[in-house]
Each structure stands twice: as C-alpha cells, then as structure tokens.
Structure of Alcohol dehydrogenase:
Amino acid sequence: MRGVVMHAPGDVRVEQREDPRIVAPTDAVIRLSATCVCGSDLWPYRGIDAVGGPSPMGHEYAGIVEEVGSEVTSVRPGQFVVGSFFASDNTCEICRAGYQTSCIRRELMGPLGAQAERLRVPLADGTLVATPEVPGDDLIPSFLAASDVLGTGWFGAVAAQAGPGKTVAVVGDGAVGLLAVLAARQLGAERIIAMSRHEPRQKLALEFGATDIVTERGDDGVARIKELTGGLGAHSVVEAVGTQESMLQAIRATRPGGHVGYVGVAHGVRLDGTELFFSHVHLHGGPAPVRRYLPELIDLIWNRRIDPGKVFDLRLPLDQAADAYKAMDERRAVKALLRV
Amino acid sequence: MRGVVMHAPGDVRVEQREDPRIVAPTDAVIRLSATCVCGSDLWPYRGIDAVGGPSPMGHEYAGIVEEVGSEVTSVRPGQFVVGSFFASDNTCEICRAGYQTSCIRRELMGPLGAQAERLRVPLADGTLVATPEVPGDDLIPSFLAASDVLGTGWFGAVAAQAGPGKTVAVVGDGAVGLLAVLAARQLGAERIIAMSRHEPRQKLALEFGATDIVTERGDDGVARIKELTGGLGAHSVVEAVGTQESMLQAIRATRPGGHVGYVGVAHGVRLDGTELFFSHVHLHGGPAPVRRYLPELIDLIWNRRIDPGKVFDLRLPLDQAADAYKAMDERRAVKALLRV
C-alpha cells in the first residue's frame, strides 16, 4: 500500500509500505476513508523533534473495518469507525476514569502510520467507535477531525471547565484551538475569546462560536483579556500551542480560581513554581483522552449539530502529502486532509 | 504592647511595639488569645527568604474584638473571632468564587505582626468570623489552628479532591500536612497515606486519621505509593512542603487523571512542562483561601468534632518566642503556640 514516510526534517515522501495485517487477536485492520496532517507532525518536520530514520507518519484516522482479530467483538468488517491517537483497552481503572490516553495498555498509533491506505489498530474493542451506519462522503472530514483535533480541543475546553456563565479564552488558532472554540460553544460558554491575528482563522473562529477576537499576544494579549474581563482574567483558558510563551499567556490570562486546560504538546516549557502558586489557577491537560468523548462527538456529527470538518481548508490526494506538510508549515493551511 | 520582631535570620526578639489602632473605618483591633509560629516563618528565619530590616512577625490569630471602625457591622467588641493571613472583603467576584486570598482588595497580615498582644485587622467584616460565644481556654489552640494551618491543610485536601473512595497521600509532616490528613478524613477519604519518617509526627498523623505511613522519600517514596495503589498512584496527593523535591514527589505519586493539591509555599520550584503534560494530573493550589472554610471549621471545632489544636506540641509564653522559633527550626516541635 501507499503511505507517508518522513525521512528527515522537511523530507516527506509517499512510498510503498507493507500492508498491515492482524498481529494480535485484539487487532483490527481498517481501510482509511481519509487521513490528515496534524500540527504535531510539524514538530519533526521542522526539526524540533528528532527524526530517527525513515518514519511512517500519521495518527488520525477514520475508515471502514476490513478485518478483525479473533477476540474482537465490538466492531466488525464493513463498519465505519473512528479511533484516537492512542489505542486503549477502555477497561482498565485509568480508562474507566476517563484517561484513555494513559491506559495501562496504551499503544501510540503514530509509529503505525495512519497517513496511508490501511492501518492496523491495536485493542480494537477499546479503541474504535462505530458510526450508526456508513456515513456519506460529506461527513468524512468531520469524523476524521473527531479522531484528534476535535477531541483534543474538546478536552481542552472541558479541562478549562468551559460552561454556562463562563468567559473562555483560547490561546492558539490552529485546528485544535479553533475546535476548542467550537467545544466551548457546545458546552454553553457565555463569551468565547479567540486569540488570533490571521484573518481566515479569525473568520473560522467566529463561525465556530467565538464572540470576541484578540489579536495581541504575550503580555499585551494578557492585558487585553484582563481589559475584557473587568481586570480579573478569563474563567477558563485553553492553551493549544505548547510553547513557553503560550503557556504563560494562558496562565496569566486566567483569573485566580480559574482553569487552564492545556493541550498543546509541551516543547521547552518550564513553569516557575512561585508564579504558579500565586496565580491560584487550576492547571490540567496533557494528551487528550479523545476516546472519552468519541460517542458524544460522533452523535453530534452524525446528527449534523456540529461541522468540525471545516478546519480542513486544504484537501489533496495522499500522493501530494509533501505539499500538505509544506502548506501547513508555511501556515497557508489550517489543516490538510489527504484523500486516500 | 509586646510583639515579636525578626531582626535577621535566626535573630528573633520580643520588643515593645506601638499599640495598633483603628486606621480605616473598616478595621478592627483584637486582643489575641494566643498566637503561634508558622512553618513559613522559618523561611526568613533560615535566611532563605530575605529579612529587610526589623520585621514584626506572625499572621495567625484568634482573639477578642476590642474596637471596631465606624463601618464595621458584622463583628462587635467582646466577640471571639478568627481570621486568616490575608484580609479580604469577601464581597468581590474573586472572594465570592471562594478565592479570598486573591481578593482584589486583599491585605497581607504578616507585616501587621500577629505574634503580639494586639492586632489590627483590615476589612474586618470580610475577614473575621465570630464563634457562637467566647470559647473556653481548651478550644483556643484549635481556633488558632483554623486561622492558617488547618485551613491550609483543608484547602490542600479539597484541591486534591480528597473524598469518598479516594486514596490520598500527603507529602510533608509539618502542621499543614498533618492537618491535611485530618481534612482528608473529614472529607471521607477511604485511605490516607502520610509520608513521614518522624515517629511523633507519624503518631499524630494516625490520630488524625492516616491509615498508612510511608517513610520513604523522593523516587523511593513514589515507588512505595505506587506499590500501595496497584501500580497506578494515589487519586489525590497533598503537597505541604514547597520544595522541588516535594512537588515532584507529589506529581509523580499521583495517577493519571488524579489531583495534586499544593499548599507548601513554593521555593525554587521549576516544573518541566513535558513531564507535567504527560503526567495527566490536575494541579491546583496556592495561598489557601482559609476564609472560605472558616464557618465550617469553626462549627466543627465548636462542636468538638475535630481537635486540630493537637498540632501545638510546644506551648510557651510570648516572651519566649525565640525558643519557639528555635524548637521548630530544629524540628523538636511540630508547631509552637505562644501564650499572650
């Protein structure tokens, strides 16, 4: 089959890869309906994360089950399924508490390479959630978004305790940040401040439910959020970047007693304990347990209550994956979908 | 009046200080029934925090109202009252959300010097809570404990979400840590693990409701907590020290999705964002909003449901304050009460 392989920073190729097959009796193999490039794929693309030799890429997936192992009972060939970037058993104590990305048997999907025609999914019963029926093509982008960016933005909004009566600020205008805006709206937030200086992304944020746009960053961004909130700061701030600047911006824009939900994969972040102590904020985040939210998100998409697929503002065939990476790296695209 | 003044690290004296008087119409002046030395007073005593010239000491207080300003309506002369180490209006939006130590009008009590015969309390209506009647002498230590260490331990346990079905670990066996054990018990925790290697403190922890004692520290302490919790870590960990080692111990002893409540005043703590991200813990803490809990704590003490005064294992007259500091510095005493 064809699949995306990163050879070095900036060097992404579509190559012949071995077809995946059932290895463990709990595996499934799916045929991808579409796949996509993640903001986190840009860390190695930009040389910030190391690339240790040719690496299959991609961890976002939705598609049709082709084959299941002998112990798989909850999904069957022919079903359309969505999973997350960590396979999880969904039965251990950590999964039952809603932290499937820290499942005691978790397996990272990235190395299996979801930017491809087919994918092996370990722990299929725990990992995959089927849609009521096979969806029409128009819903595929939204289901694919549920696999990571929607679920991650949603977790960020939940971790920040977005809800009725709350003012929510979102740091980061990538797909995750934009979908955190959508999540905050769904969760009933009163006011949603998107921090973005890119006009097309501002527009999408407003479509997803933002009530205010703040273009300032860093200390100026914090000052602007305080201005908008009677000097107190937001109740809830979602951090969807992962840098030192964005984390500090999020913490400092949150009022005492407020909540920071951070979902940007941390890169070089060091938090000063004294500042954190006196900030009085709640801090929660990490790899989003997307699996926790999949049944709800699938329902919302199936019933066309949300349209997260709008974040894909570039759609290319799998063979043009290199162009997709380049467009995202240069911020010409929010998120690129790859047709398989 | 007589009061404690710190001149330099290790140099604590009882001197004549000017009698406090009403400055603002929202002030009260109280006659202290007893006062005490706080673990946080040891930071300057040990030269870790700077001492900028002679400084009145003490921020824990309970006593009889002597005089009130013209705008004070909720307390009156003759009442026995308890307050916290930050004066707060208890009416601003931050106070109403339960974060009185971040009140927009807060005033730090420390510089006013509660280790003395009398004390001016700003924002008396918001800060002070009266007991139903003037209590007997036997209850004074417990009410004094409510002023800081009990309220701080309580906030730590609440921030760590101690409650029914939970395994709670407490890092730190000072007065705050020991009272976090008491709080976890009152909040209904199933299992309470006190981390202590000091026999008298272990004994007090068990009296307050600890079910297990762990003597190991650092990585060994973390390993022992994991052993006791099926490899997962505790649901809730209270950090009551404030050092880098104790913070890491707390974070690492917490299971994914669990809660760290940190109340040790941070000194030299730097948290690695990547470790925090993948730990999946909730982090909350800071200067405990003791005022939030005072009505409940006063009720528990008044009705003799709890006896937090037991943490005072050394009782000296105010004039011997220097001995009290020395005993706590040398860990010969958990906490020293000063009779006024």
Observations:
- Chain A touches chain B through 40 residues (CB under 8 Å).
- The two ends of chain A are 11 Å apart (CA to CA).
- Residues 2 and 15 of chain A are 5 Å apart (CA to CA).
- Chain A has a mean pLDDT of 97.
